[in-house]
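Hypothesis: this fold can be encoded by more than one sequence.
Test: take the structure tokens below, design a sequence, compare later.
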């Protein structure tokens, strides 16, 4: 992996990806943030050596370098998932690349279902902790200790100072921003009623199919991390209706302006 990382970083640096301060992973619900970036360079994933390729039609596939709110950023427009057939090492490879390019902070967005029924569709949730239900770890491979501490501490995976700033920004802009625990499952199928009940019992406020592997690797690399979910459906096992993916995407798009406001204002403070 070290050889692959070096090849990829050399390729991007030779194309002008110079010393970004902040990495951003645009999941569902934050695509419009690209409109706020003064783009300097962009490269399709399928042109980057050793990079996976996004296979989900609503996830774009570009790595973008530019300036946002006065800061140099590198932005993943589209992410990778276990359910696409990738390994956890594939899914998190871009985080390792962004760290080698120079980022010190990683900001992440995703779409999630609301397990906590006090949270409503179209609202946002700041992730304050998570539960890994993906069955493995992105750090479970031979040689991981060459890249960072194998037994990475996860007592506080999300940066408390950044989270406090997010809450202040939300309050100032009259944005509903819940705080809760995100559970990450493999997918791509959605959950059964019994699974939603289990998730509630174990302490999850929202459920999705991403983010946790990226957060684990970011902590492995000693990056400051924060993540926000847009809640795209309400997972009430006693009143469960079939979920339409188009409806999930529409809910995410509706919440995008609030997500963009949060992220842009936060980056100005970093």
């Amino acid at each position: 992996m070290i050889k692959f990382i070096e090849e990829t970083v050399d390729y991007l640096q030779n194309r002008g990806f110079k010393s970004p301060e902040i990495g951003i992973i645009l999941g569902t619900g934050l695509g419009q943030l690209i409109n706020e970036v003064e783009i300097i360079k962009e490269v399709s994933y399928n042109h980057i050596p050793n990079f996976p390729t996004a296979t989900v039609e609503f996830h774009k596939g570009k790595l973008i370098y530019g300036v946002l709110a006065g800061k140099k950023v590198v932005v993943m427009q589209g992410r990778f998932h276990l359910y696409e057939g990738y390994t956890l090492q594939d899914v998190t490879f871009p985080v390792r690349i962004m760290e080698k390019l120079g980022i010190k902070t990683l900001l992440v967005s995703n779409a999630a279902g609301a397990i906590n029924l006090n949270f409503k569709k179209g609202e946002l949730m700041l992730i304050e902790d998570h539960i890994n239900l993906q069955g493995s770890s992105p750090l479970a491979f031979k040689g991981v200790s060459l890249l960072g501490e194998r037994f990475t501490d996860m007592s506080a995976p999300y940066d408390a100072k950044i989270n406090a700033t997010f809450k202040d920004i939300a309050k100032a802009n009259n944005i509903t921003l819940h705080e809760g625990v995100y559970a990450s499952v493999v997918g791509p199928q959605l959950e059964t009623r019994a699974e939603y009940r289990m998730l509630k019992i174990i302490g999850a406020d929202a459920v999705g199919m991403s983010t946790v592997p990226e957060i684990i690797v970011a902590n492995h690399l000693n990056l400051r991390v924060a993540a926000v979910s847009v809640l795209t459906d309400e997972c009430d096992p006693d009143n469960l209706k079939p979920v339409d993916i188009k409806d999930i995407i529409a809910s995410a798009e509706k919440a995008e302006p609030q997500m963009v406001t949060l992220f842009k204002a936060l980056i100005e403070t970093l």
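The chain has six helices and nine strands. Residues 2-269 form a domain with the Rossmann fold fold (CATH 3.40.50.1580).
Hypothesis status: open.
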